[in-house]
């Protein structure tokens, strides 16, 4: 009986990472990691599967409809993590005796959300998080913003002094002061308002106005329920989120004129002034980080400053990262507050934006040297040369295919853009010599040549035969010339 073949394909919203993609990703990951470590953050990891109550709390959460739910073999409710922040809150609560506060951590890993896929948006995606737990001071929030700016600049998203990114900053306490100062005390309605405002850049001001009021019908024909706020409060909210100015202090000044004077509004403005002062001390410019009262962030566990990373010239990609302060998330696990703040970079969206901006270069291989043979050269001799090169830290790829023609072997090296080839021939090995070819130089020299003999001569000019004992030195010189 013939076995029915399975069609090789991904599930919707999931993607594979082939070698060329992975090398770019790894470069971006390494660059971000170096910035995180420069600011004193330490690595941490957690399982991709958590208990359902760990992720949603005892009473559930708004994100629950986006969670991939599972069940363990023992029948326990479980789910794939939807972010790295809630697992971090669990770790901080679980290992109070091992993790001394304040504690800074970074964590990179896949997270899962069962929402609709789109450009740069997948159901499995990679987040690269930083958090500071145990620090109530606003200086901690400033440190988070500063390390994000450092990482993005290191990735090439800052040309001279002009950033290609912008971190928008607001404060949940500001909106709480606005809503409560206008008589809105219902916690569920406040959460609904925050979620609606969070969609402002996506759906536009007119749709936000409808959702704050009676509701609306979306493009697919589905009804979206409204908050049913009174018209004067809707107008106050829309005026508030539309405030812009040329500097962070000017934003604060304009917002002060709009908010009722209460203890809550005083707290909010005190935090914003301190945050601006700390950002100035950390040399974070107005171009890199702006105060924007239209920002709320969708998750309801934020309690103070919130921030979001955008690439203004790639708005269609959406936010490439964000975060904020969450002083009460550990209350899910402990009967005490553990103040914390943090942010996440969405690696997939960031890479999408970087490719569109052409600030990331692709490479087909990390191999530095390929080994090819001419004539009857044994596999053992090829492997000896490979071992010698690798012992010197030179990434080496011996040709193990069946083709004997040297041109075919070198075209394999060319396919992967390997810069140097070591060519082993019978006569050269008997004389304890090897031929070394600068493949990149040879390719450049032949680029505009049409004459066959001249083409062959140019290829030969990039090749030299040297004593075996000089092989490493010559190869290192060729590799250094590339940089």
Describe the protein.
By secondary structure, this protein is α+β, with helices and mostly antiparallel strands. The protein has a domain at 369-481: Rossmann fold (3-Layer(aba) Sandwich). The protein has helices at 19-38, 52-56, 85-94, 138-154, 172-181, 187-198, 200-203, 205-212, 231-241, 248-256, 263-281, 347-357, 379-391, 406-415, 426-430, 439-446, 452-461, 471-481, and strands spanning 42-43, 49-51, 69-71, 77-80, 103-112, 124-133, 158-159, 162-163, 166-171, 215-217, 223-225, 289-291, 305-310, 321-325, 340-346, 369-374, 396-398, 420-425, 433-438, 463-467. Helix 5 (172-181) packs antiparallel against helix 11 and helix 16 runs antiparallel to helix 17 (452-461). The longest helix has 20 residues, at 19-38. The radius of gyration is 29 Å and the shape is elongated.
């Amino acid at each position: 009986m013939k076995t029915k073949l399975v069609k090789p394909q991904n599930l919707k919203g999931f993607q594979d990472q082939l070698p060329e993609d992975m090398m770019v990703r790894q470069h971006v990951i390494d660059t971000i990691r170096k910035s995180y470590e420069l600011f004193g953050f330490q690595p941490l990891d957690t399982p991709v599967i958590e208990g359902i109550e760990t992720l949603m709390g005892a009473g559930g959460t708004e994100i629950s409809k986006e969670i991939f739910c599972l069940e363990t073999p023992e029948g326990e409710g479980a789910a794939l993590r939807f972010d790295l922040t809630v697992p971090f809150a669990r770790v901080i609560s679980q290992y109070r005796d091992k993790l001394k506060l304040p504690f800074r951590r970074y964590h990179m890993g896949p997270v899962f959300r069962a929402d609709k896929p789109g450009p740069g948006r997948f159901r499995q995606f990679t987040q690269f998080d930083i958090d500071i737990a145990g620090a109530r001071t606003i200086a901690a929030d400033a440190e988070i913003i500063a390390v994000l700016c450092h990482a993005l600049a290191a990735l090439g998203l800052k040309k001279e002094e002009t950033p290609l990114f912008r971190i928008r900053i607001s404060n949940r306490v500001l909106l709480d002061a606005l809503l409560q100062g206008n008589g809105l005390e219902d916690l569920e309605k406040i959460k609904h308002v925050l979620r609606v405002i969070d969609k402002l850049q996506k759906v536009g001001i007119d749709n936000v106005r409808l959702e704050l009021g009676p509701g609306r019908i979306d493009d697919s024909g589905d009804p979206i329920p409204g908050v049913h706020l009174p018209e004067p409060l809707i107008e106050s909210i829309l005026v508030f989120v539309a405030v812009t100015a040329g500097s962070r202090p000017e934003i604060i000044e304009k917002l002060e004129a709009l908010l009722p004077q209460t203890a809550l509004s005083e707290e909010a403005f005190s935090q914003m002034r301190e945050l601006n002062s700390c950002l100035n001390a950390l040399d974070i410019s107005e171009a890199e980080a702006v105060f924007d009262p239209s920002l709320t962030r969708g998750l309801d566990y934020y309690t103070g400053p919130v921030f979001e990373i955008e690439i203004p010239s790639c708005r269609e990609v959406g936010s490439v990262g964000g975060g904020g302060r969450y002083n009460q998330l550990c209350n899910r696990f402990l009967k005490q507050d553990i103040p914390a703040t943090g942010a996440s970079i969405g690696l997939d969206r960031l890479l999408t934006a970087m490719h569109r901006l052409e600030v990331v270069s692709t490479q087909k291989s990390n191999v530095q040297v390929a080994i090819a043979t001419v004539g009857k050269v044994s596999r053992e001799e090829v492997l000896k040369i490979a071992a010698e090169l690798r012992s010197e830290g030179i990434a080496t790829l011996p040709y193990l295919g069946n083709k004997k023609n040297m041109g075919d072997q070198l075209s394999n090296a060319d396919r992967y853009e390997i810069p140097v080839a070591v060519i082993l021939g019978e006569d050269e090995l008997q004389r304890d010599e090897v031929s070394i070819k600068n493949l990149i130089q040879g390719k450049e020299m032949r680029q505009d040549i049409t004459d066959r003999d001249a083409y062959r001569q140019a290829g030969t000019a990039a090749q030299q035969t040297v004593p075996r004992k000089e092989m490493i030195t010559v190869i290192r010189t060729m590799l250094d010339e590339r940089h």
